[in-house]
Amino acid sequence: MAPVKSLSGSVNRQLADAIASARPEADGVDPLLRRSDRADFQANGILALAKKAKANPRELATEVVSHIVTGEGLIKDVEVSGPGFLNITIADRAITETLAARAADGDRLGVPLKENAGITVVDYAQPNVAKEMHVGHLRSAVIGDALRGMLDFTGEQTIGRHHIGDWGTQFGMLIQYLFEHPGELAPADDVDGEQAMSNLNRVYKASRAVFDSDEEFKERARKRVVALQSGDKETLELWQQFVDESKVYFYSVFEKLDMEIRDEEIVGESAYNDGMPETARLLEEMGVAERSEGALVVFFDEIRGKDDKPVPLIVQKADGGFGYAASDLTAIRNRVLDLHASTLLYVVDVRQSLHFKMVFETARRAGWLKDGVTAHNMGYGTVLGADGKPFKTREGETVRLEDLLDEAVQRAAEVVRDKAQDLTEDEIQERAAQVGIGAVKYADLSTSPNRDYKFDLDQMVSLNGDTSVYLQYAYARIQSIVRKAGEIKPAAHPELELAPAERALGLHLDAFGDTVFEAAAEYAPHKLAAYLYQLASLYTSFYDKCPVIKPAPPQDVAENRLLLCDVTARTLHQGMALLGIRTPERL
Fold first, then answer.
1. Residue 51: exposed, middle, or buried by beta-carbon count in 10 A (0-12, 13-18, 19+)?
2. How far is CA 510 from CA 245, 288, 565, in A?
3. What ranges do the domains of the chain cover?
4. What are the residue boundaries of the Arginyl tRNA synthetase N-terminal domain, all occurrences included (predicted)?
5. CATH assignment of 433-578?
6. Nearest alpha carbon to residue 327 among 123, 120, 118
7. Do domains 7-90 and 433-578 have the same CATH topology?
8. 302-330 burial: b if 16+ Cβ within 10 Å, else e
9. What pTM, to 2 d.p., does this model score?
10. What is the mean pLDDT of residues 58-87?
11. Which CATH class, in words, describes the domain spanning 7-90?
12. pLDDT digits (tens, 9 = 90+) for 368-410
């Protein structure tokens, strides 16, 4: 089916044509359409045009209105207000017909695909091998997953990259310990996620204790790092055992978070090890990097430290080792040259912003970030506790991600059980997982990513306010209405006059595609979350004021209202799915 043009887009086109007819020299002027409290839409572009033409704004607006066809087509009425605004009212028929066209387009709801879509590599969900995932890993995973959902829906091709920490000096310590204590790790196939992490924790603590107390072991561990970086076969085999064991654990946590992590998209720091010497050589040969005190560094005149000296990006250390800059630059080469990415999107803690600013600038100087290729660090804020401080346990330890998710599900189970009607205990537990995990995700995604937010489970699982539970119950309520409707099915009746609550809901439904495109373009999942919350709120108002089943309205009215219910449910379902949140059929 052909995409459905949004009502705002259609109005914009008509206004642009009217402006061009009134003032041919103004062809191409944007009417600057926006939603208004006084009408369905308001056009503000006349003011800018009047200033440019040195004309009276109200007179010019009146002239434009004379070229607009009104009635029962698209625009029912348009009036001049204020200094030269145009207040536009959409015809009821246009709203109903557009919703019917969206309803006929399945899951896409008439939303078009992006023209000239590109390839976006999304770097997100980056846990560390041999370490537990904690609350600090939450936002990267949740935000990155939502961004991929929105971008994919618009037609962009996304490629995930989980740049896990699987390389570095600590692995010399761990591997050397395993050489001297064989059999400490069971094969990854024989353990579940919790056992895997338990094994890794035990080995890490034991190896750290020996490393800190035995100088000879410390020296052997350092030599083991060299063997690892040099590709020694036995060393690599033990290193791979750590990685495999950690992946078992990662997958168990991401499954609990209701996220799909593809094995081929886990490309850690180690994957770029062989390419880092070439990256350093190329940067030095091109003059982008220079030697300073034995290290290979890149300087930036505009980035200076407290002593007003340039802050360098260290590509290669004086001892020949490589750090994060080398692996990140090598990753950029791979993602642009081999994956043909047009956009590189990094969902990384905002505290890494300076690092990525220097990495991106270095890549541009080297010609690896070419014209037409953009790189963006989607820096995110911190998860705070109720006291407004970084979220910690009572003992001051970082909160384990698994524990946080388990508690969210337990709280959700209490809410679901309290409201449950005809649900078995198994169904309550299933819904609790969907509600609890959805609550955690939505609390994160409904906040602008660059802001900190407070983790408050009581608020997150509340049925009132801006929560995913409120949205999920709105969806479940619609499904209940549809079941009770029996033989009455959704159908469009464009000839019917719409009540104010029906109009408001219909107009908001029509804005779904525009909202997704805007949120995806700005990497702003909170804008989609805000749209969905308003949708659920408008539906609640519609439900209160416009009976669908009882008291029974005329059949044509009931069918038209069921169409509104149907498109609302499908929009909620699709919108929540893009954010990675499930919508249970019954609650």
1. exposed
2. 48, 50, 13
3. 7-90, 170-261, 433-578
4. 9-90
5. 1.10.730.10
6. 123
7. no
8. eeeeeeeeeebbbbbeeeebbbbbbbbbb
9. 0.93
10. 90
11. alpha beta
12. 998 899 999 999 999 998 888 888 876 677 888 999 999 999 9
